[in-house]
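Hello Y.,

Per our agreement to keep a running log of every chain we model this quarter, I'm adding this entry. I've kept the format consistent with earlier entries: sequence first, then predicted structure.
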Amino acid sequence: MGAHRNSPKESPKVDREGRSMGAHRNSPKESPKQNSTTLRFLLDLDSKYDSGRTPRSKSINEGILSLIFYCTYTYTFTDPSESPSQQNLKRDKLLELLSTIKSLKKPLPDEILSPLFTMISTNLFRPLSLPSTSIVSVLPDDDDLVVTPTTAWPHLHIVYDILLLLVMDLEAKALSEYIDDRFILGLLTLFQSEDPRERDSLKNVYHKVYSKLHPSRSFMRKAMSDVFLHYIFETEQKHCGIGDLLEIWGTIINGFSVPIKEEHKLFLMRVLIPLHKPKGMQAYHRQLAYCIYQFVEKEPMLGVVVVRGILRHWPITNCQKEVLLIGELEELVESMAPEQCKILALPLCRQITKCVNSWNSQVAERALYVWNNERFVKMASQEIDDVFPIIVEGMEKNLKGHWSRSVRQLTENVKEMLEEMEPILYFKCLSQLHHRESATNEEEMRRKGRWEGVEMAAKMNLSIQES
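Predicted structure for the entry above:
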């Protein structure tokens, strides 16, 4: 009794949970106390876990915001006072931001998306330099004339990657809150950039936005059409992005259902066909021809409208455009039905014959090679009585007076083919041509004689006055 209560002899043995070894763990007296302790222990652990997780998520958001605010500052890359080390640091921050966004498995909250799109807009939507050359000097195969690297590209290409990642990852509803009509118009303005790398990134982003934001598609198509119309009718400056915008249109047209809507047919007639008119057409002709071909392939009846439109905008002095348009007409003829070809046989053969007689040897040779196309020959044979006189006259004119030996040789080959195809008709047309030439020569002789008589009378009158 006199021993201390904490004496080892007197102290009871306890287990790891603090219970007396002598008492049963399921004792009614002990059970309520034990259940309460265990529940409180679990709640404490859960609260500690939550309190540790929330600051971590908060710290990640704060880190992203810090990167965003740092990257919002822009550099001109032309100001000598700018520090190259700071420019490199911003590039590293942009790469870190891109990597962080890629690694996140949950959608970004609004408090991050809003400053993030502000940062993107601040970097991308900047004044562009004026075009370095006019559209007249842009050649189809001379890319060096249209390539001007963007000095800020080390930063811009990462910003484009971030924007593309957001477009692909965000839901359409969330994306539409930040990519509105104003943002879309800003992207279209950037297509005037002379850096092909930037236009390629723009093309990818714009097409992804078009695919995802269905309610904005009509506005996006109209905005692109406005760019084309301004280029055709309101400016003489080159626009480097016409070909890229036509590539986007090519994929859009490819998805059109048949029959094609009236809205899209109006775009063909009012925008695509007039795009054959500008002097710099050869810079984007490949993409334009693809769009045109998609329309005609889906509805062959549109071929009549297209061909007549191209003939209406036929160049007078631009030989490079003539060569391209001859090839485009040849492809269109191959995709049209016989009834459309019959309608177009006479105007097409008349234009091709004019090109055959061109003093530019490249134009003349390209026009002569059209007669190797079986579909074109078949088209001409449908209206052979009307087209043969025009063709024969063109062949004979080349054989008599063209300066190029190769053109004369190709003309001789085409003449032999036509004679074999319709020998009687060819001889008849040739006789009519000789008769017209004889009549023309006789008229020319009579006109010359009358003029000589007038000159003689004038001289006699002058001599009388002098005497």
